[in-house]
Amino acid sequence: MNKTFNNKAWWMVFPVFLVVAFNALVPLMTVVNYSVQETFGNNEFFWSGTIWFQQLLENDQIRDSLGRQIAFTAVALFIQVPLGLAIALCMPRKGPWVSVCLVLMALPLLVPWNVVGSMWNIMALPDIGLLGKTINAMGIHYNYTRDPVAAWFTVVLMDVWHWTSLVVLLCYAGLVSIPDAYYQAAKIDGARPWAVFRYIQLPKLKHVLTIAILLRFMDSFMIYTEVIVLTGGGPGSATKFLSIDLVQKALGGFDLGPAAAFSIVYFLIILLTSWLFYTLMMRNEAN
Amino acid sequence: MSKRYLVPIVYIIFLMLPIYWLINMSFKTTNEILNSFSLYPREFTLDSYRTIFTDPSWYGAYINSITYVALNTVLSVALALPAAYAFSRYRFLGDKHLFFWLLSNRMAPPAVFVLPFIQLYSSVGLFDTHLAVAFAHMLFNIPLAVWILEGFMSGVPKELDETAYVDGYSFPKFFVKIFIPTISAGIGVAAFFCFMFSWVEMLLAKNLTSVAAKPIVAAMTKTSSASGYELGLLAAAGVLTLIPGAIVVYFVRNYIAKGFALGRV
Amino acid sequence: MAKITIDNLRHSYLPEPKRDEDFALKRVHLDWADGGAYALLGPSGCGKTTLLNLISGLLHPTEGRILFDGRDVSNETPEHRNIAQVFQFPVIYDTMTVYDNLAFPLRNRKVDEAEIKKRVTAIAEMLELTATLSKRASGLTADGKQKISLGRGLVRSDVNVIMFDEPLTVIDPHLKWQLRSKLKELQHRIRRTMIYVTHDQTEALTFADQVVVMNNGEVVQTGTPIELFEKPKHIFVGHFIGSPGMNVMPCQVRGGKAFVEGHAVAADNAASSKGSGRLELGIRPEFVTFADKGLPVDVVKVSDIGRYRVVDTRLGENSVKLIVPEGGAIPEGKAHLAFDKAHTQIYSDGWLAGEAR
Predict the structure, then answer these.
(1) Does the structure show a pLDDT above 60 at A108?
(2) What is the pTM of this model?
(3) Which CATH class, in words, describes the domain spanning A74-239?
(4) Is CATH 1.10.3720.10 correct for B56-262?
């Protein structure tokens, strides 16, 4: 669209700018401020340079959390994106069942995150939960509060339950926007279903998939509530992801400096990865 | 029926199982929950729900949640409307940078903001108020609302604005009387997404409140730590949190696909 | 290449059609010779795209049959019918190069690469796409993309018919003419059966040897462009083809003579028209001239269209338009008109009187 240049438009953006700036800049400045200072209480602060950042790099505990976080995000993406795409491909395109499907699939996205945790907690309890009881009945020993593998399995399954629908909805929206003529042309050209997927659907879904991967990356990288309710980060620290670690440090330990440094690095990782991924995908398109 | 429909059907069954289990638990007596495994409530009881509806610390928490969610949704959309209009119709100094900066806030982990938010809202005297949570959630919701609304507004031809001015409408009158009804679907979708985030978020909501504005998501954590005999209550509280989501999703069912398929997506 | 027979074809989008109005295609019977250029012309919603999709196999008929060279293909898939189609909006495979796009239908049919290369090169040459063969297809302009769509049909040697569904819709006006002549030229060169669907009379008349005019799910007339112009079988054809369209006015027929507003008018088919039904007289503006005596009219408006002028006159209640060539004299106020008898026709209930439908 042809847009006119008009700086008065700032007046319309100003309220939004004000609220977001208040909410984003002040806290970020606080964090940056803490990250380079040391306190011994009484609101006295001393300049400490980059010591907290150096400590961060040497901290095994955080390094482990980061490793677990990356592993979790990778697993989540590897399951949810292909699965969501496959489900979207199999969904009916028109008819009364479409809204039924969409409404039921959107439901998990609207469940409060702690309820998601509680729900799976109840579901997976080894003695009275449907999932736990079933697995144990099959002769596999399963107890997610004791066994790290079981805990991981439960957390991943929970995340698949919670978020795959987002990928489905995005892909479905992308699929229905492909004009019928493409499918007709493919039929006439004698294309097999695989070729239709490879040369029509996948290229047309590229944009939507980029957004889906981006959103799933960000949200899974920030996961906190569901896991803290389900496993509390345990057993041991088997499911202690970055956000859990950070909240423990920031609210529990009064280690303001290290927590602030941690926050900054954490935010930057997400920002940079997202930016890098997005630019790469889009540059590829331009070529 | 085609065989491939089996895939979404199995998926939906998978989605419904934990929800069914939650509902199932909420109607069981404590005795039944702890001492037996049953696929449906043998001794059907409404005790858990009775407790929630009679104990002010429970139903009060629901009211608190709904209050700040409503506050957040209305404020986010109201502020985002003019901003999205500006982005969709005008170029101005720093517009692109501003837009991307707004969106980058959506990428911030709430965990990063917990502590600074507590300090910030305490210092301005908003701690433990509905407004604090509503404002905190606006950091994530406003960028999203602006983005969604801008997408819808760009789909409305500029000629609509020009025709209205020619017909003698002033800008505010045009905006309220003509433009807003035109993009009502977009407003619905934006409100849906704001509602969605604000209703499901717990970390900030819990830590920015203590007593007066304590939300349901925080009220539930006190039972989750106590094992065993409060499971029925926890399940019932969980079931009740599903209802607003289900109602909202039912109302926007025809816009869901469209909302996800905004021009740029 | 094939001769196409459309045998008593009916189609409805409803599961159980009962009344005539339930049918998008009421009853169509056509015979098309091998290697001909045909156009389906009509306003939107007339059923022409439905007919096209029935021929291509994207839809299956409710009643009737479609025969390719006498073989019933009514229930075959598009793939088995060996047809090619160019759509309204260019359909190309974005991620492939132009070469791969053209090779795609052959590769799907397991033709060997050497043969593919030969044919793709030849077709690219014909369509003037050689220079872009190694480029990404998504980078081409709309007319280039439409050429690729066409090329995908041309590379196959076994194609029975190539169909065009309003292929020039998204092409820039100045390129439309160019692409249209290219199409016509190709048709002459390769002599394949082509069916061209459009609502634009210029496109239909310049492309096709035979034009099928459709309205309301029926074929109103089939004929060469000249026939459609000189002897419309239905007033709809008279209105739809030609600019401005045919003049139509109510008339009576008594004793083998037509009367308009009480004035006698000589008409070609006046003798064969019975007095039944609603009678109308039709004549194209091209065949109306000013005269010293004849039908008395008032001159209302003169519009200059460049090489000629269109004069609007009023004969009683009726509007009569006529075309006056450059330099021709145009009287003001009262005037008289003469109708060319050979091109003056009587229509009964909309259809040309005295002709079998």
Answers:
(1) yes
(2) 0.81
(3) mainly alpha
(4) yes
